[in-house]
Task: inverse folding
């Protein structure tokens, strides 16, 4: 069974966090805290040395996680520990292709089978996805599609054919953690995506506050939001005091659950 | 031998290359590919570029018979393809002119670039000044420190330099930041990549623009030697000067081709930039190619005394040429390059950049007292002005003031 197939219809909340951040042990506590709020989706970011599509905050999280030479296997083990079957939260991995390739595609899939429901490979474009998509689908893991404001209609149609799980709409032409949200444009594009596909559309990149979450829900047709950088930013806001961080994380997640 | 025809329409050189970027960039790359295909057939574009090559860059660059060095080596007859005589002092300008003409055709109004040695940054700033476009150069703070003359040059030319503090603070990180800038400013910005690296169509496009080097060299050597060369030698960072020289000779199976990488403190040490000697295939900056990485695919920091070669990746076409064994690649250490830098200066009255000094070092090392009666063309792709301070420091000469 794939939890992503039974996402709620509206106000879906997906929380992104880098594995091993700030340290492997503390990371377990961070994910535990996140999980305790039962968000609809948790995205586990696998740290990469060169996260090209990420902004400064997630870059810093990757760097901190890799400080202690965190391996891919350790990240995958961490995800395994949270035993998805015990709750309704969907698990999704977000990573760069080199991580999967170097680990070995088959070995990677063997490791995440029945552990996660979906995977986002940020730098795997539609043109290159065939073999990977086939292997994933054999193991009931959905390959989540990203659509950007630059993706035109013709291309969207190709990308969205047979899409599963949810669609990740990149709300700003930008890297993760960018700041401007243009609700009109978001709404226009989300509407157009929804005409082509029946799976939920989540808006990510640049969502920072309760207000942003409410605005997306009220001013657009999107089915939910993805929050990442804002969760990590709290750690730096609090001057890296880990206990305070957990508390501020709790408060923030309570706020954005609308 | 089958006629060489790479890359495929989706930018693959054998299994290498491709376009591994996020969906924010994908539509832009496809559009760039389309525009590039279109201008390749455009006679006006070709004429414009050739005029600039001739009157602005000073092409063709000469083919100089390095008599004294040849005598010193006591081996083959060595010719220098002197792209260091180009305006701005290196081969980089060939590619920048091609790309900025394309940017203009595409209606882009803002130019960004990454730079390591600063040569590509200077060349980009130069063409931006010529065409009146705002120019933003990403440069690692470590490189800003060791390539100060070029930093000042770029500023004089009106460019804004954005220091990059992440990672190893050199070329790889500058390229990450430039790509991030592009993702943020997709609509008005053209990214002029400085080497045969990055996602398709860059490796092909940069090779094509640089292949003017090899085309000229071919004509020139046929004129003076009445035959093709026995060897071609060039240094390989991302691989653009090398591809520029090699490409027009790839079908000539009697021409042996050698690429020289920077091995830093040694190809077997952690402080190296010899990607194809010490690396394994992986994905960096949108392209599948050899890269320096650990067992988990984390990209390692490179090391070389030459900022232009200090890159843990290499263009995908070189990876392909290595695997089909058409080109052989070797590593040269910082120390060997510095020696060659001095030998060439003294013997030929040409102060080479540290990058081609690696090619020179390989030539001296591998051909000493060997291969007599053979003819070698070495790509002297840059001059050493930018490296004077680095070299002085390494040699132990007090160059302050
Ligand atoms: C003079 C010179 N040669 C070589 C290089 C390395 O680049 P490539 O391998 O693309 O020729 C550089 C890069 O800055 C350079 O300035």
Result:
């Amino acid at each position: 069974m794939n939890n992503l197939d039974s996402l709620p219809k509206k106000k879906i909340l997906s929380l992104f966090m880098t594995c091993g951040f700030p340290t492997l042990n503390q990371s377990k506590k961070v994910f535990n805290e996140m999980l305790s709020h039962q968000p609809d989706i948790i995205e586990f970011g696998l740290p990469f040395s060169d996260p090209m599509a990420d902004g400064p905050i997630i870059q810093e999280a990757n760097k901190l996680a890799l400080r202690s030479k965190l391996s891919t296997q350790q990240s995958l083990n961490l995800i395994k520990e949270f035993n998805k079957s015990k709750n309704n939260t969907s698990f999704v991995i977000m990573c760069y292709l080199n991580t999967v390739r170097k680990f070995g595609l088959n070995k990677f899939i063997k490791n995440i089978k029945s552990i996660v429901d979906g995977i986002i490979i940020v730098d795997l474009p539609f043109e290159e996805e065939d073999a990977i998509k086939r292997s994933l689908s054999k193991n009931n893991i959905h390959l989540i599609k990203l659509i950007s404001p630059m993706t035109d209609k013709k291309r969207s149609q190709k990308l969205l054919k047979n899409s599963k799980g949810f669609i990740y709409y990149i709300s700003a032409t930008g890297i993760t953690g960018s700041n401007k949200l243009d609700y009109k444009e978001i709404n226009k594009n989300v509407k157009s995506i929804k005409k082509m596909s029946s799976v939920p559309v989540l808006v990510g990149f640049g969502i920072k506050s309760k207000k942003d979450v409410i605005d997306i829900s009220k001013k657009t047709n999107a089915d939910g939001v993805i929050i990442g950088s804002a969760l990590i930013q709290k750690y730096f806001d609090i001057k890296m005091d880990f206990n305070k961080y957990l508390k501020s994380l709790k408060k923030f997640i309570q706020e954005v659950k609308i | 031998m089958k006629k060489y025809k790479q890359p495929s329409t989706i930018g693959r050189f054998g299994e290498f290359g491709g376009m591994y970027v996020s969906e924010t960039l994908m539509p832009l790359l496809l559009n760039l590919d389309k525009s590039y295909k279109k201008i390749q057939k455009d006679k006006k574009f070709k004429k414009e570029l050739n005029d600039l090559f001739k009157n602005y860059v000073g092409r063709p660059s000469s083919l100089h018979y390095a008599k004294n060095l040849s005598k010193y080596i006591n081996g083959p007859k060595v010719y220098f393809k002197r792209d260091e005589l180009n305006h701005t002092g290196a081969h980089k300008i060939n590619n920048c002119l091609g790309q900025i003409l394309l940017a203009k055709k595409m209606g882009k109004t803002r130019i960004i670039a990454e730079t390591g040695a600063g040569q590509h940054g200077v060349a980009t700033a130069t063409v931006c000044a010529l065409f009146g476009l705002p120019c933003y150069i990403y440069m690692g703070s470590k490189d800003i420190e060791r390539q100060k003359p070029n930093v000042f040059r770029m500023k004089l030319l009106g460019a804004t330099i954005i220091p990059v503090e992440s990672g190893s603070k050199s070329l790889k990180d500058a390229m990450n930041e430039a790509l991030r800038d592009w993702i943020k400013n997709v609509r008005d910005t053209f990214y002029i990549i400085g080497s045969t690296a990055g996602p398709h169509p860059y490796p092909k496009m940069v090779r094509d623009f640089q292949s003017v080097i090899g085309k000229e060299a071919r004509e020139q050597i046929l004129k003076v030697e009445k035959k093709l060369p026995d060897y071609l030698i060039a240094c390989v960072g991302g691989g653009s000067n090398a591809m520029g020289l090699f490409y027009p000779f790839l079908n000539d199976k009697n021409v042996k081709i050698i690429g020289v990488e920077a091995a830093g403190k040694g190809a077997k040490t952690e402080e190296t930039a010899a990607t194809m000697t010490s690396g394994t295939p992986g994905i960096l900056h949108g392209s599948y190619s050899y890269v320096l990485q650990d067992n988990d695919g984390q990209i390692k920091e490179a090391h070389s005394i030459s900022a232009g070669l200090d890159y843990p990746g290499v263009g995908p076409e070189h990876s392909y040429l290595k695997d089909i064994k058409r080109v052989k690649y070797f590593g040269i250490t910082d120390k060997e390059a510095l020696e060659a830098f001095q030998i060439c200066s003294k013997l030929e009255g040409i102060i080479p950049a540290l990058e081609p000094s690696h090619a020179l070092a390989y030539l001296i090392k591998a051909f000493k007292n060997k291969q007599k009666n053979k003819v070698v063309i070495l790509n002297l792709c840059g001059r050493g002005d930018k490296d004077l301070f680095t070299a002085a420091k390494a040699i132990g000469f007090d160059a302050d003031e």
